[in-house]
Amino acid sequence: MRGAGQGRSVMNKLSSTERLLRTLSGGEIDRVALFDIFHNIGLIEHLAGDKVTPKNAEDLLCRAARKSLDLIRHFSVPDNLDPVVFKDETGFVYEYQWWTAHLVERPVFRTSNDTENAVKRDIKIIYDCIAKGKVCRLARQHVMLFDEKFDTFEEVKAEFKRVTEKLDGTLMLPPEDVSAVAIATERYDETGWWYLWYDYPETAIKYLDALTDYQLAFIEAFADPAVCPFTQISVMVGTGSSLLYSPGFMRSEVIPREKKKVDLWKKHGYHVFAFLDGYKWPLIDDFIDIGVEEIHPCETYCGMDVRTFREKYPEIPLGQPIDCTNLLPFGSVEDVKQAVIRAIEDAGGKKIIIGSTSEIHPEVKVENALAMYEAARDYRL
Q: Rounded to whole angstroms, how far apart are CA atoms 3 and 210?
């Protein structure tokens, strides 16, 4: 029987790992898998049954995740609720909050030659960090990802394993990265980056290669699929209605570098998801061709819907179809439940992972997040 119901006797029979593996293969599952980011203290406190403090924040986040999710990513602990301003060794200034960060000030680069000199310095620092197995903040996107709090790759690996054990069955995705171009354009802004690209193309390419080499070095040091056999690449592909860059640029400079990461993860035994942010239709085939096994999110506001995706790609799993921009913050509980049921049914009741299109951010209504997870758990496959 299909439809919303009260659950069934095999509910939660599978482990999260088994449920996700069967979801990828299209096998029989006991319920739909759940995957999300928790950046909402109200939800964490509700699920964990306690108030967040600096001392208990990690414990409560783990408790909330294992109570509700099969897979969590962007594991940010709300242990410091006051913003912190940080200036890196090269003069870039960031403001950190517990769940995200923002670049608030760059050094002044008056010419593209100034930018080139700064990029050459960055390249040297990045390769020095690679040689020492050190976390390189110049080579990361600053959004409070798991690895940003540590100094070495080995520390990240050890802490990841420790926290995963506390999750007690719920899995955590390895610290994700974004494409090299995304890091370059954030650090030097779009204007500075593209002047560099056209005025000093050799340096620009060396910079993209250095950023990618850093990501590959991290994967090599971190990989252990026994802790979690799933990972993802994260690529900012489009705006709401078009690609961010031309298909030619994506296929020559972005996707081949992402393939290197996919290949290395898979060499170590991982199943690789792809977080493709924004409008993505023209490039989905390209990412499937490099070996990703699942695509997310499914953003209706970017011209995508579950039914159309399933018709075009009947064998590819799809995730994160519940809108966190409008529906989860402003919709009703019933609207959310119906969206979940519709997504599952439009997917044919298989190869679908339910979660928000990005994260349970602070503006999401707690009751709507709970309704999303409840509707997915209660759906009879």
A: 50
